[in-house]
């Protein structure tokens, strides 16, 4: 009897590690920027606060991994989010069996491998570009929220630092920084539907696209988030589809690591999954 192939969780680990290690990319096109008008600043504020109406998210999800080369892979799992507190991913490659569980907190990042009976812990303050990173940034990416790196609640002064760009391909708000640029693209309906992160000096890039928006009470929430990563050793695209998203319902955020599990480094854990490819 053939053993089911369990290599897929490595893509989730690479995806999460990339999200927590900074944004890079290639600047796309030159255009003229202007200071946003009072109405544009007001619209930006509405987009930033759009998803603050819920404190907890609990959803079954489908992860689809599309590498540059090779066969696409899909698997089921769960995603739990407590606003300004933690994010928990659970990945179940087949038959509802949990293979990998990850938790992101304000100060740390945990990965537990049920397959290898091991776990790894990363201190977020030690990661590359740590001064820009926080757990809220990852929550914002997963919940279609415009953000200012390192700032939980942007002030009006910070909103006025954004640039407003009008180009043929579509309009966007840009957060300028000495190290990178973040472009938050706005569609014809005035909805934030794409993030492009760029750095003129690097040859790596990330794009986050949002699709299948649905009205959920006072929220306009995307049922699908697609993250495209290029320029790393492992070029891939990760698509997250929310299957049964519930907001502010009683949710268990318990995250236990069995005492018999061995602690290893994140690199060691990734190598163990790579050996299964």
What would your notes on this structure say?
By secondary structure, this protein is α+β, with helices and mostly antiparallel strands. It has a single domain, classed as outer membrane lipoprotein receptor (LolB), chain A, CATH 2.50.20. Helix content is 16%, strand content 39%. It is built from 5 helices and 16 strands. The protein has a 16-stranded mixed β-sheet that branches. A hairpin with a 5-residue loop joins strand 10 and strand 11. The chain is globular, with a radius of gyration of 19 Å. The protein starts with 8 loop residues before the first helix and ends with a helix.
The gist of it:
With 277 residues, the protein is of the alpha+beta class. The protein contains five helices and 16 strands. A hairpin with a 5-residue loop joins strand 13 and strand 14.
Tags for this entry?
277 residues, alpha+beta, outer membrane lipoprotein receptor (LolB), chain A, 16-stranded mixed β-sheet, 16 strands, disordered N terminus
